[in-house]
Amino acid sequence: MSPSGFLDCTRMPEILVFQNSPGDRVIIVPATGRIQLRLDLATKKEDRANRAQRITQELLDKALQQRVSSPGIITH
Considering the entire predicted model, what is its pTM? Predict the structure, then answer.
């Protein structure tokens, strides 16, 4: 499951990494369920919260869509 606009840049199965063209990254650790957002360094300080919220909402929408279309199946 990668959010639209994000490419799967995973190099090892223990840590899933997705990155978009501006340089934002979503890092997922499946073993712990931890999700980390790393925004592009060029993002202005005053824009960071809105950008993080937008990415988070997109992730949630994608996860819910995946859950509805394939209950019990988790893909990356």
Answer: 0.72
